[in-house]
Amino acid sequence: LHACDLARALGIPHVLVSPMAATLSALGMLAADVQLDYVQTVMLPGSTPIEILEQSTQPLVDQGQKDLHREGVHPDQWCLSRTVDVRYVGQSFDLAVPLTSKFHEEFHRIHHARYGYSQTETPMEIVNVRVRAVGHVTPPTIPTMPLGSADPAAAKWEDRPVVLPQGMQPVPHYWGTRLCPGHEINGPAILVLDDTTVYLGPTDHAAIDTYSNILIKVGATDG
């Protein structure tokens, strides 16, 4: 209801209203990969053989696989990666480095890139081992419709009196569920959807795209 006025006050030129505005975050959860992170503090010297470090991460890998299975992700869509948190002895901060046979060299490189120097002669220590378990999911398909006529007359409900900055005046109301791709509406207008209400100010302009999003070009003033 206040999106256009807020955008205008902040200098934002466009507003997008999803056809599923009330459940957009839930749709995002369905479309996002499952990502689980695990960490175990080990406090080991940097000279620790990589075989020992890999053994230290194995319980985390096992837990990640169990959790991905519980999330319903097929094993073909699993991706597990191992990293170690490394620092020079005496430092109070560490850097995450991929766990490979060359993690020492990689730590020096990352440290130099981050802080502008490295200390290749200084002993290192490994603070934590980490595992990230990612389950790739197939996002839902969002249907589209071709653009049609710009005339929104078929979606019009009625004109109703509304108090605007200029005073009381009749404002056209439109059923949001009847708006189709291609329709264009000039403000002032009110779009009534099942789960939200959209107000277009006198200088705002809305167009419905192929995904049934309401794309609003925010006017410079509220009238």
Notes on the structure:
This protein has helices at 3-10, 24-31, 50-70, 103-115; strands spanning 14-17, 34-45, 78-88, 95-98, 124-135, 156-164, 167-175, 184-186, 189-192, 197-200, 205-208, 214-217. The longest helix is centred in the first third of the chain and has 21 residues, at 50-70. The protein is an alpha+beta fold and 223 residues long. It has a four-stranded antiparallel sheet with strand order 1-12-11-8, with helices on one face. A four-stranded antiparallel sheet has the order 2-5-3-4. The chain has a four-stranded mixed sheet with strand order 6-7-9-10, with no helix packed on it. The protein folds into two domains: 3-28 and 143-217, no CATH class; 33-135, 2-Layer Sandwich (Dna Ligase, domain 1), CATH 3.30.1490. It starts with a helix and ends in a 6-residue tail after the last strand. 21% of the residues are buried.
Distance between the termini: 16 Å
Mean pLDDT: 93
Total helices: the number is 4
Number of strands: 12
Reported by name, the CATH topology of the largest domain is Dna Ligase, domain 1
